[in-house]
Amino acid sequence: MNNSIKKSEGRLGVLIPGLGAVATTLIAGVEVLKKGLSLPVGSLSQMGTIRLGKRSEKRSPLIKDYVSLAGLDDLVFGGWDVYEDNVYEASVNAGVLAPDLLESIKPALEAIRPMKAVFDQTYVKNLAAANLKKGADKYAFAEALVQDIRDFKSERGCDRLVMIWCGSTEVYTEPADVHATVSAFEKGLRRSDPRISPSMIYAYAALKSGVPFANGAPNLTVDIPAMVEMAEANGLAISGKDLKTGQTMMKTILAPGLKARALGIKGWFSANMLGNRDGLVLSNPENFRTKEVSKLGVLEDILRPKENPALYGNLCHKTHISYYPPHGDNKESWDNIDIFGWLGYPMQIKINFLCRDSILAAPLVLDLILFTDLAQRAGMTGIQEWLSFYYKSPQVPEGRHPVNDIFRQLANLENTLRCMTGEGAVSAPVQAF
Predict the structure, then answer these.
(1) What is the DSSP string of 165-231?
(2) Which among 24, 251, 261, 422 is most buried, taking Cβ atoms within 10 Å?
């Protein structure tokens, strides 16, 4: 182990804005895992292996045994929500996990009650919020969150903290002058500038409190100059945005394969049905626009139409989300892909993915918590591009093109872990001439 990485010692506090289906599924899942009642399937940090050295050495330990990650028993959860339900009640309402499973961990879940949230109806129009903070302006809200963070760390005996946004998708926002510098942002907070969203206030409070931040939604949150400046100045890790779960995960798996085979793509039409709180929020066109931008950028980044216009120059990419309450947290996605091959002959691919939204998202949140904490202990500050593996719209330093090919993202993540521990990167073998 590299001496520059501080060992994982003590309790890691996990603060989550948005204790909805994803967050409660994560928290309940961790409690189940602590009891040894199931396996952390879908979590790379817990179930994944990593190859070390030459292939002939046959060294492939579990990642959790290779790097110094916080143990699940060391995680302490807390957070904010616009509803007053404790985590047990919220889990029951989400309808993701079986009632008997939740009953077996009920006391641990009931003990976690949400703190009053910072909320702005203009950013999430379809939620009727009740558990809210009061303040004279947005700066007062930020100060209240800073106090919450301080109190949580003290009262729960945490040695260090991580914050990850699991709240709703906010309406589409573009960077403006108020986001350009920390000074401009703080002035905007004091005058309650409408271009400062609730998620930005949480991120600001975290970074001001010395807490690294990960953004699990497609909101414009830490990917603004003010937050990057603040993270670098305070020596904190940040990453985002938008957890890569169902349909987009499939795109980042399939599109690189079609590109590798030099097969052309004329069109990719994607439809989704989702019935949970996320689906309700996204039924508003302004909130859907934020998600749409995140989802549409994936194919553009992977296929690079300008580099090969003959194969991808006329690509028509459409995506749609329908709120369908009977599905609950069960997400169904349909993809129609119009491709062409030798001599331009047309073909089609159809995908019907019946998945569980929070079941796919929860292990990603766990990994981001553990890897963000690892990055922080390793002194890796600013944008954590190596965590792009987890995001639909990866945050990268200014001027750098994001990588959306999931296989290249995984290679980058693994090589970062290797280099972090002094092992050295692994590259693909080359045939000798």
Answers:
(1) E-SPPPPP----GGGSSHHHHHHHHHTT-TTS-HHHHHHHHHHHTT--EEE-SSSSSS-SHHHHHHH
(2) 24
What CATH homologous superfamily does 247-356 map to?
A: Dihydrodipicolinate Reductase; domain 2 (3.30.360.10)
Evaluate whether 12-243+359-420 and 247-356 have a shared fold.
no
SS3 (DSSP) at 260:
helix
CA 171 → CA 181, 217, 256, 287, distances in Å? 22, 11, 30, 4
| Among candidate residues 231, 173, 162, the one with its CA nearest the CA of residue 199 | 173
CATH, domain range 12-243+359-420: 3.40.50.720
Q: What's residue 1's pLDDT?
A: 40
Q: What CA–CA distance (Å, rounded) separates 400 from 359? A: 32
Q: How far apart are CA 199 and CA 327, in angstroms?
A: 27
Residues 6+ apart with CB under 8 A from 311: 259, 262, 263, 264, 265, 303
pLDDT 10s digits, 199-227:
999 999 999 999 999 999 999 999 999 99
For 102, 113, 273, the CA distances from 96, given in Å and listed in that order, are 10, 19, 16
Q: How high is the mean pLDDT of the chain?
A: 94
Q: Could you read off the pLDDT of 153-174 as tens digits, one per residue?
A: 999 999 999 999 999 999 999 9
The domain segmentation of the chain, as residue ranges, is 12-243+359-420, 247-356
pLDDT above 90: percentage of residues in the chain? 82
Q: Is the dihedral of CA 238, 384, 241, 85 positive or negative?
A: negative
Cβ atoms within 10 Å, residue 294: 22
Cβ count near 66 (within 10 Å)? 19
Nearest to 10 by CA among 367, 368, 377: 377
Averaged pLDDT for residues 169-185 = 95
Those residues with Cβ within 8 angstroms of residue 151's Cβ, 6 or more apart along the chain or in another chain: none
Q: Which two tokens stand for residue 363?
A: 């292990």
78, 156 in Cβ contact below 8 A? yes
* Per-residue confidence band for 294, with pLDDT thresholds at 50, 70 and 90: low
How far is residue 50's CA from residue 64's CA, in Å, rounded to a whole number?
10
Cα–Cα dist 283/276, whole Å: 11
